[in-house]
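Key idea: predict the complex, not the pieces.
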Amino acid sequence: MKNRTKQVTIYDIAKSVQVSPATVSRALKDHYSISQETTQNVKRAAKEMGYFPNSPASSLRSKKTNTIGVMVSRINRPFMSTFISGVEAVANEKGCHVFISQSEDKAEKEIENAHAMFSARVDGLIVSLAMDSRSYKHFDVFRNNDIPMVFADRVPLDLEVNKIMIDNFQAAYNATEHLILQGCKRIAHFSGAAHRNIYKQRKKGYLAALKNHGLLADDTLITNSNLGANEGWEMTKKLLNLASPPDAIFSANDTAAVSAIRYAKSMGISVPEKLAVVGFNDDPLASIISPSLTTIAHPAFEIGRMAAAQLFEQKENSALVSSKTTVVKTQLVIRESSMRQG
Amino acid sequence: MKNRTKQVTIYDIAKSVQVSPATVSRALKDHYSISQETTQNVKRAAKEMGYFPNSPASSLRSKKTNTIGVMVSRINRPFMSTFISGVEAVANEKGCHVFISQSEDKAEKEIENAHAMFSARVDGLIVSLAMDSRSYKHFDVFRNNDIPMVFADRVPLDLEVNKIMIDNFQAAYNATEHLILQGCKRIAHFSGAAHRNIYKQRKKGYLAALKNHGLLADDTLITNSNLGANEGWEMTKKLLNLASPPDAIFSANDTAAVSAIRYAKSMGISVPEKLAVVGFNDDPLASIISPSLTTIAHPAFEIGRMAAAQLFEQKENSALVSSKTTVVKTQLVIRESSMRQG
DNA sequence: TTGTAGGCGTTATCAT
DNA sequence: ATGATAACGCCTACAA
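Result:
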């Protein structure tokens, strides 16, 4: 049954049921003023005729797209895809769809994507910033048009918006202190992009723990990178070739931490005895590598849920002043890669 | 600078530049008939005034959304997120955006999503089926309205559409033969949903390899499941408790294979000496678990690219009859989990 | 409870 | 090279 004619519209249904298009429009969304009978007739006809609402038309007229945008660096990271699932869970409950865009950690692409999101007229925006985005002008349009925004994880500190993040300082402090309590004396740190606040905070937490335990910070033990697998490997190599190499590494993500373990293993350096390693994120890799990786767990799904929940709260109650920061607890998950003491 | 008035439209630009809205519309898309000067003036004004095209309006009028839909089971799997990146690479080149939806492997949700995709009036659709979807009626709308579709990876066999898939039979055959050549005699198989073709083919390839090498197939060694981590663990447990347990497992995915290795390790059963394991997909986990996992690699990104390329080909040349099947080569990646012979 | 009519912002057609 | 005008499909005051 090829039916390549025109798409079915509410006018076609109206004709078929012998009511006005307006009535059809109302019936389809269960408007209270339409009689049960008419509503049923309309819906039956709509189904039989293969009607599907035309979202662009509806959006144009109603100025609502029932779509929220989610901007992330990449979806192929465990944290991000789980985070998105959390957002979707709430959005779907509210009858909303989710429009995902990836910046690939490039500011330029993030800007393009933000514009595309606005052109699509999303009803709200959830953002985790690209690694190298430094200006936030591209989000002004949303602000100026009262489109709710929530930033999550990688947030801009100097913007008056809702933010959801973990306590990076405390998490890093705990991770580092754990290494110290395991007897490590020279603890290296893999840090990320220096201007991205989450990495700044992790570094601060690391430094604070050293200081509080009377250990000296050593700049040669602190590296900056994108924290990719290759970077992790190379940084470990360099560190272990130092005149006085570290006896532990606290990495700002798991990817680089896993590389550190693998490099050490490849060189016959025993983990954790000679080199203790702690990561950040609790990616699936962490529990599978051997020795398993001690790391910081944070609830990605829950953070996604919270971000979406706050977004809808803003939409429904726009009187709300919206620049609160929510801090989510993390957990130090101790595994083999740092266990020196029984 | 709060500017919470009305959004800027081409009418506003028209007034400002003193031309008609039609001219603005054309200038903004570099229509050949508009003079360079006017075009520049219009664009400058558009920028200054903070204009962003209203996609819903444009879509309504032009019947093009410049959006293609991608339907997958879940994005938080390495294969899928890489696949999507491949699709996006091509789509972005063509000035298109990508609308992602997740079925969570549930037919019901896949149906809902298909309808939402049609309502959004996507210009094309790329689909990898949900684990348990058996009817394909929900894709009829697209067919009937001449909206191009490409199926990838998990494809329906009995639908006349473009399909891109790997040679599951051959890949499974190779994997199983490899185990046989390593001296394994009782090879178990973790299979997926019985009606999903990719799993059927993998099972067939497995059986064919056994047969060709004079080994008897044993139904007690073949399991069906969703191939999750828990399932992998439990199935391995059961198999190893059999009166005559297997000496190898060929799993239809890496997740379950990794669980098999972990269970064996937890029981002090050495891999690959007592139990050889081969997986499928070459997820990141495969090279990180110890012993590292022998598996089948297939080019996720490339498959995504091809799917998108075929979609645009169909759009641009709709005369094309579109029901070809493209088969992509796979590779057996041999690692430690199956290496019994030096 | 239902119908009428105008408009959302853009683009296509026809005219100039 | 540019303008006028209608139409895309739907929603929503306002009217009945």
